[in-house]
Design brief:
Blueprint (H helix, E strand, L loop, with lengths): L8 H17 L8 H24 L1 H4 L4 H23 L4 H8 L2 H12 L2 E3 L1 H18 L11 H19 L5 H16 L12 H27 L2 H4 L6 H11 L7 H19 L5 E3 L11
Antiparallel strand pairs: 1-2
Helix pairs in contact: 1-10, 1-12, 2-9, 2-10, 4-8, 4-9, 5-8, 6-8, 7-13, 8-10, 9-10
């Protein structure tokens, strides 16, 4: 691959698998609690890793020089579903939660500047901001009676952004180790929150959750490669490509019909993401001086 050009394949794999994983999760959501779903998914995630790599060199999964940073990154994976659940319990609609969540690419740009000393060009910032506006066009206006509740989707966006930045910071660790600690940290942190009334999963539920775990592991593996191969500032606006995959799955399953507003917003997002990708690697440079926050490397 030409080093001057970003490889789009890990990005497409990540967003496509992410969208498919969410669609599959919807089949069991409501039958059991979100905490139980997430905990079971990551327990299966760990079992898959052990099956794939444990028989050859199990110690390679947990051998790390940065256990604290590994667990901190896993904590962000716990924060996302917890913020979602708390927002839903307080009356926020899924559309509102996801609309605000899609501020995440802008937060990734900011955190990459502060923590990784990357500096995105003004054109990349502008394209990302306008794509975020396209998401709000796509999802339509939202009425929020208590604006303070928006702290929950903002928390989701912040957790996702931190996960991306920390993954970039851990790129010198083996991907299998990063994936192992993500699963281990989620299982350990969520174990005290497991519901007292555990819902015994049926054979169908277990099959769905196994599929969710497999797709999720593939998505996170693609994210590992995506963040290792290019600065996260370059990848930040490309994360919006998850939206057309998610909408395409929803439309194909006839969960809803596309409206003119949705199609217009989607086209705007795609045009801006394409523009951001064409800006090339020169759209991101390294800061010459310390930002005051210190590098994560």
């Amino acid at each position: 691959m030409n080093p001057a050009k970003q490889d789009i394949r890990p990005v497409l794999a990540f967003v496509a698998l992410w969208a498919a994983e969410e669609a599959l999760t919807a089949l069991v959501f409501g039958r059991m609690g979100l905490v139980q779903i997430v905990w079971t998914r990551f327990l299966l995630h760990l079992l898959l890793l052990l099956a794939l790599f444990g028989w050859r060199d199990a110690a390679s999964l947990w051998r790390t020089r940065r256990p604290g940073r590994q667990l901190a990154r896993a904590a962000t994976m716990v924060g996302m579903p917890l913020c979602w659940q708390m927002g839903m319990q307080r009356g926020l609609s899924p559309a509102t939660l996801m609309s605000v969540f899609w501020l995440a690419p802008l937060l990734i740009l900011a955190l990459a500047t502060l923590c990784l000393k990357e500096r995105a060009s003004r054109r990349l910032w502008l394209a990302t901001a306008l794509a975020c506006g396209g998401v709000f066009v796509l999802t339509g206006p939202h009425a929020v009676e208590r604006p303070l509740l928006l702290v929950f989707p903002l928390g989701m966006a912040l957790c996702f952004s931190l996960y991306m930045v920390l993954t970039r910071a851990l790129r010198d660790e083996p991907a299998r180790t990063n994936l192992f600690y993500t699963g281990l940290g989620v299982c350990l942190l969520l174990a005290p929150l497991l519901p007292a009334r555990w819902v015994p999963p049926s054979a169908f539920d277990l099959a769905v959750l196994a599929g969710v775990a497999t797709l999720g592991l593939g998505a996170l593996a693609a994210l590992e490669r995506m963040t290792a191969s290019a600065p996260v500032s370059r990848s930040a606006p490309l994360v919006y490509l998850q939206i057309p995959f998610a909408l395409g799955i929803g439309w194909s399953l006839e969960q809803y019909d596309p409206s003119l507003r949705m199609v217009g917003g989607l086209l705007l997002v795609l045009l801006l993401v394409g523009y951001a990708f064409r800006l090339g690697p020169r759209s991101v440079t390294r800061l010459a001086a310390d930002t005051g926050f210190g590098g994560l490397r």
